[in-house]
Design a protein that fits this description.
The protein is of the alpha+beta class. The protein has one domain: 3-Layer(aba) Sandwich (Protein Transport Mog1p, Chain A). The chain is 22% helix and 26% strand. It has six helices and eight strands. The protein has helices at 23-27, 38-55, 61-68, 80-84, 189-193, 201-205; strands at residues 94-95, 99-103, 108-117, 120-128, 147-151, 154-161, 166-173, 177-184. Strands 1, 2, 3, 4, 5, 6, 7 and 8 form an eight-stranded antiparallel beta sheet that branches. The protein is globular, with a radius of gyration of 16 Å.
């Protein structure tokens, strides 16, 4: 099966196109109508994978070679329905409908939820790359403004605009799952980073 149709609620105001979107279209910059920040997200994912490759001297050369050319051998993509179970409920925030898509043939899946509270908004996105570097090969550098960071021991990148009180923090979990928290009108960067505490990152890292 080349891909699974994503599941979206009837009447979703963001739905305006067919959500059976191929990975090749996504990497060329065609975005679904529900505003998944694919290009920017993948840019940071590429940086995270590069960061892990450079900092993890214990990785075997065979694993590195497998990850550098398509999905690593024997890795099966985790479907978006499973990833959606890691999208947290946040006290004081209203969570919107869960969104997601799985492209089994390309070894990629995404799950996303948007959260709102008076005056503020944030988006949580979880992406399974299946350690497939080919998906990110054309995106070698992170977006300008991002700096390296770690969250709960996982390598990542982050940016913060103090004037707008907005930012984006992304980490690579288990060498394959890119978890992104994007917030607008947040009190500070620490509040944005604290959202990761509501996600079971160790359980996510253990997924096969």
């Amino acid at each position: 099966m080349n891909g699974e149709r994503a599941h979206y609620p009837p009447g979703d105001a963001n739905v305006g196109v067919d959500f059976t979107v191929t990975t090749s279209r996504i990497l060329r910059g065609t975005r679904p109508a529900w505003r998944f920040p694919v290009k920017r997200f993948a840019l940071c994912a590429a940086a995270l994978i590069t960061l892990v490759s450079c900092s993890s001297s214990s990785d075997s050369s065979s694993d590195t070679a497998a990850a550098g050319s398509g999905a690593a051998s024997g890795i099966k993509v985790v479907p978006h329905e499973t990833l959606q179970t890691f999208l947290p409920t946040l006290p004081g925030w209203t969570r919107g409908e869960l969104k997601g898509e799985t492209e089994a043939a390309d070894g990629i899946a995404r799950a996303q939820a948007e959260y709102e509270k008076p005056g503020s908004a944030l988006t949580v996105t979880i992406m399974d790359t299946s350690m497939n570097r080919d998906l990110l090969a054309q995106m070698n550098d992170p977006s300008p403004g991002f700096s390296k960071t770690t969250v709960s021991g996982y390598p990542g990148v982050q940016e913060w605009t103090d004037a707008a009180k907005s930012g984006d923090v992304q980490i690579l979990v288990g060498g394959r799952f890119n978890v992104s928290i994007n917030g607008n009108a947040m009190p500070d960067l620490a509040t944005l980073r604290a959202v990761f505490d509501a996600i079971d990152l160790k359980k996510l890292a253990a997924l096969k």
